[in-house]
Amino acid sequence: MNKRIAYYDQLRVLAILGIVCCHVAADFITRNHGLIMQHKTFFGVLLFSSGRLIGVPVFLMLSGALLINKKDTLSEFIKKRFNRVLIPFIFWACIYVIFAVVIQELEFTPQLVFNIFFGVKGGMGAILWFVWMLMVVYIAIFIINKIIEYGKSKSDNFDTNFINVLVLLSLILYLVYNMVQQNFPDNNIYYYASFIPFAIFGYFLTHFDFTRIRIGKIDVTPGLIVKVTFALSILAYLVFVFVIYQTSLANGKFYSANYFDFHVLVFDFSLMLLFRYLPECNGMVTKKVNGFLSSKNVAKTILSISTASYGMYLVHILIIKLLEAKYLYRIKFYNSPTFWLPILLIVVFFSSWFVVWILSKIPYVNKISGAS
Known about the structure:
This protein is mainly α. Helix content is 71%, strand content 1%. β1 (214-215) and β2 form a beta hairpin.
């Protein structure tokens, strides 16, 4: 078994937390376009909606960091991805169908099953688009690995040079897609393929030694990287707030930033480098942060949530929808989001974790839990 990398687990926890935040806010946004334009309510909801900055991009970056430049046969690759991703997906998609029919009282039809399994936007299983996108990214990673494997048999430095070229091409494609994305609908192969650059960025950011860089007379140290990336992440977040605020005012309804806004890339780059180099810093503040993250109970909790993160992704919407069907209207959640959003986040996040954790402890059932 490969040794786990602590900051990968920390980032994975942030990613799933960001996704739950985003979807908790989205449930309110879709029902209260008018109320969220009120000043105090707007910024309360925005705080949760900003989870979109972290979630999917960080998950994909970590996939690239872990899988690119690895040797696998086609059968090994398919087996690993099927066991890890598709088996839990099939199980939970079936639960989604049952939930839609029993709890939401929707008619059981082939169209309902299709919409859920393929993550059709606006439906009960809309978040399941992520699984199909992930499959496209995995296929791209497998092809990249085979090219690297062949190239390394011809040249020792082929992998480094090839990755550098891929990073440059990915940046260009990312910027191009940022300009033309309105012409590409969601839930198709072109949209899914547009996420491939995130995996390539993830590998580069976690394997390139940035401390080898020298800018004039300035040596790039872990401490400098942490300071710069911390500042950049805050700046990118402020830009995120400004863009959403201005665009929402202009359109008269809440605007949700997409994954291809440039400040999202800056934020996620900064976040990944911040967590990568944080353990190498010896400042007073960073020592306290590192001490906290590496303490026994905190590290154990982070590891547990990290290993449950994929299952949590699959199950958390079911919990949100269950609460929506049974309780949210009764407590007037949609009239007091600033008060209820933090509570709903805590309930959904820890309930999702608990469900996956329990299932992961049951023999055979653990295969479909989504825990790694």
